[in-house]
Amino acid sequence: MKGYIGKVLRIDLNNLTSSVESLNLLWAEKYIGGKGLAMKYIYEELPPKVDPLSPKNKMILMTGPLTGTAVPCSGKLTIAAKSPATNTILDCSIGGHIAGEIKYAGYDAIIIEGKAEKPVYLHIENSKVELKSAGNLWGKGTHETEFFLKATCGPEVKVLAIGPAGENMVPMACITSELYRQAGRGGIGAVMGSKNLKAIVVKGTNGVKVADPKQLTARAKEIMKKDTLSDDNLWAYTDGTPIIVELSNSTGVLPTRNFQQGTFDGFDKIHAEAVKAVRKDKKGCLSCGLGCGNYVNTGQSVVEGPEYETLSIGGSNCGIDDLEAIVEFNKLCDDLGLDTISTGNTIAFAMELTEKGIKDFNLKFGDVKGYLKATKNIANKETELALGVKGLSEKYGGKEFAMQVKGLEFPGYEPRGSWGMGLAYATSDRGACHTRAWPIADEAYGDMDPFTIEGKAELVVGLQHYNAAKFSTILCDFWALSLETVAELLTLVTGKQYTEKDLKIIGERIVNLARMFNIREGFDAKDDRLPQRIYKEALKTGATAEKLLPEEEFNKMLREYYQIRGWDSEGKPTGEKLDELAI
Amino acid sequence: MKLSLDISRCIGCKLCQIACSAEKEGVYQPTAARLQIEKIYTMQGLETKVAICTQCLDCVEVCPTEAIKYENGMLTYSEEECTGCNECADACPQGVIVVKADTVGICDSCGGSPECVNWCPHGALTFGCREGGGVG
Ligand code: SF4
Ligand code: SF4
């Protein structure tokens, strides 16, 4: 199949060696690349019940057949492992230019196993692969690390790096590239830290060949002009994700004060117009005409961001309406190597624990100083907040309002105001996540009744298949294109005929494979649950006043979801289903 | 007639480079493009690094076999006449002449319909008689 390089670079950190092997093309036919193929490698190569922070865990960097080509918005890289935050399978998606660089260097994937005795960084320049000492970089932020590596290895290299949070194996540690782009969730940075791997530096100068370059270039250009840059998608360029703040507030789904409310008085200090007022420039990922990145400078602090997730979870959810403080929080998280979603949630949870008198963390909603200090302390593991929301609730209580599923903290969408979103959080392969399915676009932000379970199971199932397939090609979440178009592009790239139906089946196969991994780890239906606050505590303000998601309704929706999926009442795929999907 | 870049509109997507390499080399390979545009974070903040043909004509001057000519406001290049001495590439102040096995790759403005400009999603790259050309 064209579009692939056909090569995997395997790094053995135990022995500080590397080797090159063929990409498993049989698997590529069934799982494409990106998320799907990375998960297949993880599923096959990890023994059950591996400690995620032990040398036995592996980290897989996976590109896709579209990576590096003229297909718009194909600049993402999947990074997968077993998650130290959830013990589930974990795949993250990171933008910037690193994915293309890996492919131009001559690899579809990089598999990292073992643990180096001392801190190292991996330096790849096409076929030249070296492990070098990172002793001088240990303890440094991702920004200083990236600047140092560019000064040492050349300004054109692309870098993935962890900060102190990753080194300290904090379960909400991320991996950073180009200072402000993240593989954010599930503690992927902690996995890298556990391997004593500080950074990965890549330079690639080769090309990517596809089955029909003339046709692909012509179609890609047409699609970019007509589809990518159409009104449906252009919000990413004009505003970027901050545009969602106002929408969420008006529909009552803007997480506020640890999900105690769905509206925020200070929303207009942190919405898109406020961000645009301090915006200085725009930046996109490789091959992306959307350029969602807002480069802002408040005078005090500089960041590419803040994205909606940070504005909501690190803003309204902590009771913070000071944009300058959120920008500083964002920059701190990026530099220290922390996921803003999990970090913001943990601080918000600690604020509520304190205010309720359950445990005093000396934090209050809206307390900017405390919030910024806590962020630093989490990265340095100088506070129990580094346990994350689930860990804290197990130690001190407050489980009813510990806003997490399977150990992953909630993103910025209130499920009581979009019931399908609750199902999406409960059934996502890596815990509460908004990128496996985003039904809120049809519910609170769209035309569907958000306060019913009617049609939601089907909606979430379909979206999970769509995203799993899309993230395996690998395309950016922000480009809303049809699977038909994805199939057309994939056919031109690989030379293998793909249809919309094929992609739906592949999507379903990926979802089921991830589920089988999690079942092997001991997860079942009882883990597909939301915190009690969602079931029992009604919201008080705005469009979601008086609303909750009753537990019986949730359970009904979940049962329907299992049924549609061909899973048994324990949430386990039936033998029939697995045969049908050839897993 | 030359290329110019309005850096305030550039998002650093490199579609221009990908398009150039596709058009000229039949492969997607930004390093094989006849222009290099990068948005990159430095200690000073977000900077745009630009290398495009400014039609300074240094290449035309140094080419010993007249393989590169300047005609009708564009560069032309003849592979037959090129001996692969790479003097043009050495002389190019922008470093946008691509060195290949025994030939070179020159920005020939795609004969008047530049692919890089056609692809640029936000009109950052333009082609025309803009005074001075280059970077603005
Ligand atoms: S005008 Fe043509 S040859 Fe010159 S840089 Fe643009 S695409 Fe490449
Ligand atoms: S295509 Fe346009 S926006 Fe993208 S890097 Fe090139 S000049 Fe900049």
Helix/strand order of chain B: EHEEHEEHEEHEE
Q: Mean pLDDT score of chain B, rounded? A: 93
- Number of β-strand runs of chain A: 17
> Over the alpha carbons, how many angstroms does the gyration radius of chain B reach?
15 Å
Would you identify the CATH architecture of the largest domain in chain A?
4-Layer Sandwich
Helical/strand content category of chain B: alpha+beta
Low-confidence residue ranges of chain B: none
Q: Can you tell me the CATH topology of the largest domain in chain A?
A: Aldehyde Ferredoxin Oxidoreductase,  A, domain 1
**Termini gap of chain A:** 21 Å
**Number of E-state strands of chain B:** 9
The CATH homologous superfamily of the largest domain in chain A is termed Aldehyde ferredoxin oxidoreductase, N-terminal domain
User: Ends of chain B: how far apart?
Assistant: 16 Å
Q: Note the beta-strand portion of chain A.
A: 5-15%
The total tally of domains of chain B equals 1
- Uncertain spans of chain A, ≥5 residues at pLDDT below 50? none
- Average pLDDT for all residues of chain A: 97
Structural class of chain A: alpha+beta
Number of folding domains of chain A?
Answer: 3
Percent in helix of chain A: 25-40%
